[in-house]
Amino acid sequence: MDSSIVLYPSPGRGHLASMVELAKHILGHHPSFSVTILLLSTPPPDTHFIAAVSATHPSITFHHLPAVSLPNSDHLSSSPANFILSNFEIVRLHNPTLHETLVSLSKSSAIKAFIIDFFCNAAFGVTASLKIPTYYYYTSGASGLASFLYVPALHKKYPDSFKDLDAHILMPGFPPVSPRDMPMAISDRSLKVYGYFLDTAVQMANSAGLIINTFDSFEASALRALRDGLCVPDGATPPTYCVGPLVATGGAIGGGGERHECLGWLDSQPRRSVLFLSFGSMGVFSTRQLKEMALGLERSGVPFLWVVRAPPHHDEARGALAELKPSVESFLPEGFVDRTRGRGMIVESWAPQVEVLSHGSVGGFVTHCGWNSVLEAVCHGVAMLAWPLYAEQRLNRAYLVKEMKLALSVKESEEDGLVSADELEKQVDELMRSEKGRAVRDRVLAMRDAAAVALSKGGSSRSALAELIGSLEAGSGKVDVSDKVTSSMGIGGDMGSASIVTIST
């Protein structure tokens, strides 16, 4: 019977892409494994991306789990916290079909391991009942993982929610963090989503191992804290496997067959002169903020390539327009495109980020600090200007700017979070023209070389991958179908509620 590994990503676009890169990486060094990636159907995955991966890597099998309906789905999407909550809930509601799928797959192959995204924490109970070794793949960095695993300790230390604290928060391997920089989903312990994150941190510490998309020399202080057991003070830390940087090679998501026109425009620009601005698949701004950004870019005089999305539907300026799908130019200052023509280029919604960052004309990157984007910038030696928007991105900024010094940062208004035109102009000038910016670029270039070494033969990430594969091979491969998961995990009874670990304070 063939040995197989089953991967279970959360629905987020970046999470799926990173999990696919992990699958490619494992198969590239252990082609005898069969790899199945389970896809949640709610929300539907990117079919173009799935088709592209299937065409280029036929050894990766995608299995779609049946769709489920979320109770009160309108309410769950009404706020960022509820949107994140829905990610956990969707996985929990899929547990019955997950159980059936794993039992079915085990009849044709020996499942050596189950690798899950942290949003898929509810699946841990299913695989535990089937006695399948379960690993967590943390798609962000070791610094984020170190702080995340430390949340149960912080829960005991602080009786109040993070949002109500005045002093900086101290965490192992991390510079002091402002309470404002803690992820929104864990800032208020009265929210249900906080309980999910708390439970996930506890469960991760009980897993067979933690796979991290980073490399040893990149986040040294955070990795020391993890490996010294400082982040799980009340128990043992599972083995950690730093197998990164795992980044897409380009062209797989949203591109199509032809070369994007922005790459031709970059061909005409001087080397390392262009500032690239892109904020991920969920990066949208108000009309007011877009106009401030445009003015800051215009005043800076720096060549720019800017990926712009229309403001959200509740934006006042958007509501005043008659068009159902207005052009992004409608939300920029009048005449801006004409005044910056030749020096700047606007791309609506999407650009081939990996190809752009690897282009010789790009010298700076304004980023939301999503981990995939951070790694892509490092791998191509592009200095960053950090502008976080959601999730753990503010923590990523804190570590990039304060600890690693691989980025500069914009400063948001404390009142409304706005980044002014003057502030953007100032930081763009500093990144692209000052000695401080040059020092950041030099450090990023050195880290680019370190990343290549980590992935090379004898490098730390290659060695960690070999250790991981050895651990995966040692898995029992025998699924125990005799036990039932309790109804609290969504199997064998009603759908139940998520299992939340109670931690006394």
Description of the structure:
Residues 483-505 have low confidence and may be disordered. The chain has 20 helices and 13 strands. The protein has helices at residues 13-29, 47-56, 73-76, 80-93, 95-106, 124-129, 142-149, 151-157, 192-204, 220-227, 261-267, 287-300, 316-319, 336-339, 353-357, 371-379, 393-404, 421-433, 435-455, 460-473; strands spanning 2-8, 34-39, 60-64, 109-117, 134-138, 209-212, 240-242, 274-278, 304-308, 344-348, 362-367, 383-386, 407-409. α7 (142-149) runs parallel beside α10 (220-227), α12 crosses α18 and α18 packs across α19 (435-455). Helix content is 40%, strand content 13%. β6 (209-212), α10 (220-227) and β7 (240-242) form a beta-alpha-beta unit. It is globular. The strands form 2 sheets. A 7-stranded parallel β-sheet has the order 3-2-1-4-5-6-7, sandwiched between helices. Strands 10-9-8-11-12-13 form a 6-stranded parallel β-sheet, with helices on both faces. The protein has 505 residues and is α/β, with parallel strands linked by helices.
Q: Please give the order of strands in the largest beta sheet.
A: 3-2-1-4-5-6-7
- Mind summarizing the main beta sheet? 7 strands, parallel
- Average pLDDT number: 90
**Which structural category do the helix and sheet elements fall into?**
alpha/beta
Strand content: 5-15%
Task: Tell me the total number of β-strands.
Answer: 13
Q: What is the number of helices?
A: 20
How helix-rich are the residues, as a percent range? 40-55%
| Head-to-tail CA distance between termini | 49 Å
- Please tell me how large the radius of gyration is: 23 Å
Shape: globular
User: Can you tell me the residue ranges where pLDDT is under 50 for at least 5 consecutive residues?
Assistant: 483-505
